[in-house]
Amino acid sequence: GILAAVDLDVELRLQRLQGLEKSLAGVVLGVHADHRRLKLTSSAAVPEETRVKVNTALPWGDRLRQLFPVSPSLKQLLQQAELDIRAQAPETIHRYSTALLGRPLEVSLSSIAVAARPDAAVEITAKAAINNKPVSLKLSGETLAALLERPAGPWHDLVFEAWGDGFHLGAAGSAERPLEAEGLDVSYALSGADLHDLWPISGAYSFS
Question: pTM of the entire structure?
Fold first, then answer.
C-alpha cells in the first residue's frame, strides 16, 4: 500500500500527562518506518517512581510483502515482532516481605527488562535485592510465537538463573499450567560460599 512505501519519522513529546490514576511525566511517542521495518517507541515516567520504555519493531514494506503475500493477521504480525520493554525505579518497583524458617525475608525489585525476537526465546532479566543484598535474575523459555499460541501453557524449555554475592541458583524445566503455578517439572542446582545473609544457611553449600 501507499503507507508501506513511505518513510516515516514522527515523534511526540509531552512534558506531563494528567487525568490518569497517576500523572505521567516525560512522555515520548515515536513512529519510524522505512521500506523494511516499522518501529514504535514510547517512554514515560511516574514522577519520582518508575520509568518505562517500550520499543517494538515490525516488518514493513518490502519485508512485510516477502513474509506475507496476503495481508497478515495481528497474531501473525506479532509473531515477527522485535520487542523490548524496560522498567526502572530510583529505588524499588515492587517490594515483598514474608518469613522463611522463622527469619524475615524481604525481596525488592528495582529494574526489569523483557526482550523478544522472532525465532528466539523470550528473555526476562531483572535486578533485585534479597534482604538488601543485590541479586541478578534471568528467565528464558518459549518464543513469542509459541507464547501467543499457548498463553496459558504448557511452556517448555524454561531456564532460570539467580546469582549474587556468594550464591548461584540455576533451574530448568517446564510448566503445564504456568499461570496457576501447577504442573511444574523443574530441576535445580543451588551452590555458593555462604547464604547466611539471605537465608538461614551458613557455610559452603550445594543443593540439587
Answer: 0.81
